[in-house]
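We now fix the convention by which a protein and its fold are recorded. Here is one such record, which you should read through line by line:

>
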Amino acid sequence: MRLGSQKAGFTLIELMVVVLIIAALAGMVLPRLWPASDEAKRNIARGDIANISVALKLYRLKNDRFPTTEEGLKVLYPEYLERQARDPWKEEYQYLCPGVRNPLGFDLWSKGPNKRSGDADDVTNWEE
């Protein structure tokens, strides 16, 4: 009888136990990460709005005016922004000039996760 003639490896039961442990851990951790993911997306949208606002102000310095609503944000590319910004929910940022909330400037916002303007989940450049 030779020693070591058995093949080394995991049994099916051992593999199933490991998969069950991983699934249980994921079940405990993932629900806690989802709210953080939503807040992270809101923070990304706030940062994008701040960057676009700076680009709009640079445009005004050069042209003595903000772009009109009809011109929109597309006049900022590529001179003031590298690429057309989309919010974390894959929608275009909304722009209005002159603004309703900022009559001497512009309104800039993301529709948020529900993709409808005017809701509490919008991310905006004005204070409520």
